[in-house]
Write a structure and sequence with these properties.
single chain, 284 residues, alpha+beta, 29% strand
């Protein structure tokens, strides 16, 4: 008996068995189990952020609007002429298990009313459940007016740490959607900033649209997903990051956008004088 066909068949079956073990994995379905710092919640599609490719009735978000939390970002971004990171928000999932080869799929949509030095930014990453150390970056975006293709990944991370061509599906054909004074940014979780832009017709005011991030786990373990957004230079002209995944649900109340106007009112009053200065056409 020739052993070669038998060995080949065994190898093929073994390979198929390995493939069969790899499966989609996701964070815990219920957003109520996530830990929020700042302004986080769930909302229905509307305005510039329509239904994600999952078709879910609601998706999650983090927003700078109404947040007084500081030091929420894990990214070490050097100060520029306008300052440093200010208030922000972070949403951290409960722990979930994944096997080596399992694939994680999440969708993200970054929306911003800021830019030109006041470059807000957002991120998403997988961390180890035991100590929150980095496993992999999933998404990065930063407000800018120096070319909308630079919004993602926003020059926040080295390419060897986060390569959008490898992580984001269809990235090579993607472009940012800029809004205008006639058709301003519309995403209710932006609170007082919704419907505005730091300057009329600034290219950096707008949204990325839904972008799918795919990550394959190299090793088995217990993990969390962390999603965040931060203001830069001041607490005005807010930004937000919407996110979704196939099994996302909300079975207990989490903050809805209707509450953001009350949360943001204090910040809006404190920042009124600065807002007027920033609306001045002479802003550098």
């Amino acid at each position: 008996m020739n052993p070669i066909p038998t060995l080949l068949a065994a190898a093929i079956l073994g390979g198929l068995g390995t493939l069969a073990q790899a499966a989609p994995t996701q964070p815990p379905a219920n957003l109520a189990s996530w830990d929020c710092t700042g302004t986080c919640g769930a909302t229905a599609p509307g305005g510039d952020v329509g239904t994600s490719p999952t078709g879910n009735a609601r998706f999650g978000y983090v927003s700078t609007a109404g947040s007084e939390a500081l030091n929420t970002s894990p990214i070490d971004v050097k100060a520029n002429s306008t300052g440093v990171a200010t208030n922000g928000s972070r949403f951290l999932s409960d722990a979930f298990d994944a096997a080596g080869g399992d694939q994680l799929s999440l969708y993200f949509n970054y929306v911003s009313t800021d830019g030109k030095g006041f470059d807000d930014y957002a991120w998403a990453r997988v961390v180890n459940a035991s100590d929150n150390t980095l496993v992999s970056w999933l998404f990065a975006a930063r407000s800018t007016n120096s070319g909308t293709r630079n919004v993602v990944p926003g020059d926040l991370l080295d390419k060897d740490a986060f390569d959008p061509d490898q992580t984001l599906v269809g990235y090579k054909d993607w472009d940012f959607t800029s809004k205008s004074a006639a058709d301003p940014v519309d995403f209710s979780v932006l609170g007082e900033s919704n419907g505005s832009c730091w300057e009329d017709n600034a290219k950096g005011c707008g949204h990325t649209g839904w972008m799918e991030s795919l990550y394959s786990f190299r090793d088995a373990g217990s993990f969390r997903v962390e999603i965040g957004v931060t203001n830069w230079g001041d607490s005005l002209y807010d930004s937000a990051l919407a996110f979704d995944y196939q099994q996302l649900s909300v079975t207990e109340p989490v903050p809805e956008p209707a509450t953001l106007s009350m949360l943001a009112s204090g910040l809006a009053l404190l920042g009124l004088a600065t807002r007027r200065r920033r609306l001045n056409p002479a802003r550098p």
